[in-house]
Amino acid sequence: MTMSEPISDKSDFIRDIINEDNKTEKFKKRVHTRFPPEPNGYLHIGHAKSICLNYGIARDYSGKFNLRFDDTNPTKEDQEYVDSIIDDVKWLGGDFEDRLFYASDYFEQMYAWAVQLIEHGKAYVCDLTGDEIRAMRGTLTEAGKGSPYRDRTPGENLALFARMRAGEFPDGAKTLRAKIDMASPNINLRDPIMYRIVHEDHHRQGNKWCIYPTYDWAHGLEDSIEGITHSICTLEFENHRPLYDWFIEQLGIFHPQQIEFARLNLTYTILSKRKLLRLVQEGHVSGWDDPRMPTIAGYRRRGYTSDAIKNFCDIISVAKRDSTIDVALLEHGIREDLNKKARRAMAVLNPVKVVITNFPEGRTEMLEAVNNPEDETAGTRMVPFSRELYIEQDDFREVPPPKYHRLSVGTEVRLRYAYIIKCETIVKDADGAVRELHCTYDPDTRSGMPGASRKVKATVHWVSAKDAVDAEVRLYDRLFIRENPDDAEDGKDFLSNLNPHSLQVLPRCKVEQMLGSAMPGDRCQFERLGYFCADARDSKPGAPVFNRIVTLKDAWTKIEQKGKQ
Ligand code: ATP
Ligand code: MG
Q: Per-residue pLDDT tens for 481-493?
C-alpha cells in the first residue's frame, strides 16, 4: 500500500525530504504523519495549515495520518476541546480513519522507559525548585551548574521516582531530569525535566497519575509508539530536535524524523491559543466559535467553506522561514469559492419603503431571477413584485451628492430583474425622517417587453414588502485594527488593538421570501452586499439570522494587480 512516487506533483522542502527517504528506504518507503494538538483550546487557522500539510502528505504518498491528543498537561486540558478538535479535523477532511490516539494512554509505557533511563544512569530525581533549576541552567555563553542531586545512584533514583508516582510528594517538590550535559551549547540538553509532580485530575486518566511527562520527553515517544515516520512541527522546536533524538537513541526504539516548518501568521489576526483564550474568557467575543474568531469553529460558523480553507493552506505552501500572510488572500479565496457555489438572493439591510403609485393595489407579478450567473445549472426562480417594496436607504438621497446615480427625486433606477422606477415625491414623518418614497414605474421595461433594454445609470436590489421576511443580519469586520495586533503602544497589549466596530447587528432587515426558510449553515450571496450564512446557533427557519461571511469588495485582487504593475 505504500508507493515510492507521490500521487501529486506538489513540491516543497518537506516532500523533498520524504522523496529522499523513500529513495534510500530509510522507512521502507512508509509515510506516516500525525497531527498532535494539545486539547487546551480550539483549533485555529494555523492548525488547519498543519492538518492540511500532514494529512495531504499522507494522502499523496498513500500513507497514513493519525490524530493524536498530546494530553500531557492536566491543568489546562478539557473534554470540550477534545470534542471540538475531532469535529474540526473531520470538517477539514483530515481522515484519520480509526487512528485516534491519546498520549495519556502511553503513560505506563513512558514510565517504564523512564525507569530504563534511570537504570542506565541517564536520569535522576532532582529536588531543586523550578526557579533553582532555571537559575543554574546557565546562558547561551555560560555553562550551567550541575544539580547537587545529579549523582544519586540508580537505586536511590528508582526508589524516589516510584514514591513520586505513588503521590508521596507535593507539587513541585521533585522532578525527574535527564542526565545529559550541563555544558552543552544547546540549553535544551542541560539536564531537561522529564516529569513534574502535578496533583490534578486528568480528563481521561482521572487521579491515576500525579506525575506528568513534559513535551520534550513525551513527544518523540508518542511518535515512536505510533510508528510515525515524519514528525512535522513548527520552527520553535528546531532546537529541541537534538533532545528528541537523544531520548529515542538512548532507548533504542523506532526513530521518526522530526522536520520543522514555519508557522502560519496572518495579518489582523491573533494565532496564539493563550491569547484566543483571553478573548473568550474576558468576553471580548461571544465564545470560541464567535464568527470573528480565527478558529476553525468561528470560520465555520461565519460561513467559510472547508474547500476554501484547504485551498488557502495549499496555496501558501510550507516554508522554512517565518512570514506573515495577508488575510486578504484568505478572504479572496472564500469569495472565489462562494462565487461559484452560492445562490443569489435579494435582501435589504436598512429598508426604506417604496410605493409604486401607478401599480395596481393587490396585484402581484412574478418575475424571473437568475440563481447564479456563474452556474447555469442553478437555474432561475420567480420573485414577487407588488405595489409596496423596500430598497436600501443608502440607494436614495434626498440631496444627491455629485456623481450619485441612484435614486433621488426626479431620477430613475432599474430594480434588479424588474422595472425602471422614477421617484416622484418623498413622504416624511412628523420628525422629518423619510418614511416612504412615492415612485412610478415604467410598465414597458421588464424583461420581455420592448423597453427591457432601456438603460439607466444604476440598478438596485429590492424586495416586495408584503412577501418579504424579517431577518437579523450581523455584519462582521476584522477583530483587530492593526495589521500586527501585537504591535501595541507601550504598556498596552494586543487587546488595545481590538476593533470596536467588528460587529454591527442589523435587527430589522427585509429579505426575499426563500431566505425565510434558510437552514442553519445555508450560504448565499445577497446581491450587491456580500456573501451571507444562516447562523448555526441562532438562525431558525421562519426567523432567520444571517452572518456576513465577506463583502464583495476584493482587496486581494487590488494587491495582486499592484504587484504586477
Ligand atoms: P500555542 O498556541 O500555545 O503555541 P500550539 O498552537 O502550538 O500552542 P498545539 O496544540 O501544540 O498548540 O498545536 C498542534 C500542532 O499544530 C503542532 O504540531 C503545531 O506545530 C501546529 N501549529 C500550531 N500553530 C500553528 C501555526 N500558526 N501554523 C502552523 N502550524 C501550527
Ligand atoms: Mg504547541
A: 999 999 999 999 9
Does 266 map to a domain? Answer: no
CATH code at position 192: 3.40.50.620
Confidence of residue 313 (pLDDT cuts 50, 70, 90): very high
Edge-to-edge strand ranges of the sheet holding 64-69: 32-35, 64-69, 100-102
* Look-up of cell digits 429590492: 462
| 8 A C-beta contact, residue 64 and residue 58 | yes
Ligand nearest the Cα atom of residue 274: 1
Same domain (yes/no): 349, 233: no
In a domain, 7, yes or no: no
Check which CATH number belongs to the domain holding 474 and give it: 2.40.240.10
Which atom of ligand 1 sits closest to the CA of residue 41? Answer: 10
**pLDDT confidence tier of residue 5, bands split at 50, 70 and 90:** low
Domain residues for the domain of 111 are 13-261
Question: How many CA atoms are closer than 13 Å to the CA of 176, on its beta-carbon side?
Answer: 35
For the question of residue 343 being annotated catalytic, the response is: no
Map grid coordinates 407579478 to a residue.
365
pLDDT beyond 80 at 6 = no
User: How far apart, in Å, do the first and last CA atoms of the chain sit?
Assistant: 48
Q: Catalytic residue at 273?
A: yes
Contact 502, 294 (CB under 8 A): no
pTM: 0.94
State the catalytic residue, choosing from 99, 263, 353, 397: 263
- Residues 343 and 81 sit within 8 Å (Cβ to Cβ): no
**How sure is the predictor about 563, in pLDDT bands with cuts at 50, 70 and 90?**
low
**In the chain, pLDDT over 70 holds for what percent of residues?**
99
Domain count, the chain: 2
